[in-house]
Amino acid sequence: MLLALTAANALVHLDGLGWTSGTARLGLYLAAYGVVTLIVLMGGRVIPSFTDNKLRTRARRWKTIEWLVPPATISALLATLIAPDSLVTALLAALAAGVHFIRLAGWYTRKLWAEPLLWILHLGYAWIALGFALLALSAAGVDAAASSSLHAFTAGGIGALTLGMMARVSLGHTGRMLEPAPVMKWAFAAINLAALIRVAVPLFFPAAYSQGMTVAGLMWMAAFGLFAALYTPMLLRSRVDGKPG
To answer: What CATH superfamily classification does 2-236 receive?
Structure first.
């Protein structure tokens, strides 16, 4: 993973230096897809585990689905980088979308909606699955889906899961109970609304693109602004349980 991100970084810098032509875009996509792959691998471990530990449930995991997740994910993303507008890419992306939606369904329980630190993670993973579905549409010829797919992966998947994980681990690592302040629910809602606007506007309301991106940007800033306001004091003080850190 580190080598892939290093290669992506090099492609951007080589283009910026004028030593190559047109490699910056490839580098940016490679980096985004590398982070998506990391989320898929780590999310598959922590999301069902956190859900089961909190709710005393038992997530369903199907061996075939778990076996398919890594190759389906990586092959779909590589195919997109190599041949973004091919039938093979569309089929691989559709397979990846199906695998991820089924995987997510196995983790689902209605009880999670009472726990903001859980539903934000499940929604974040759902954006990843939706990203692959939009990737399949893009490869099949729906041009507007290409931009929406990238935003589902980044604004949705990376944004929501990053915010959710930071909110959770910051509590745990400062010795606090895993119960966020009630206002964090609004931050979690805002990050998902920002992603929804970024994904939906190019597809359904292209004429309102500028206005939509402005609103999405404001919602994004509000989400992380709330996090910063609430968590900065915690992270600047010693642990409340007296342990080192």
So the answer is: Cytochrome c oxidase-like, subunit I domain (1.20.210.10)
Burial of residue 98 (number of CB atoms within 10 Å: 0-12, 13-18, 19+):
middle
User: What DSSP line would sit under 215-232, residue for residue?
Assistant: HHHHHHHHHHHHHHHHHH
Residue 51's φ and ψ, nearest 5 degrees, are -65, -45
A 10 A CB-CB count for 218 gives 14
Residues 97-126: tens digit of each pLDDT: 999 999 999 999 999 999 999 999 999 999
- Inter-residue contact 63 to 43 (CB < 8 Å): no
pLDDT at 245 over 80: no
Q: DSSP 3-state helix, strand, coil percentages of the chain (rounded to 5)? A: 80, 0, 20
SS3 47: helix
Domain assignments of the chain as residue spans, ordered by start: 2-236
The helix (run of H) or strand (run of E) holding residue 142 is none
Q: Are 5 and 28 in contact (CB under 8 A)?
A: no
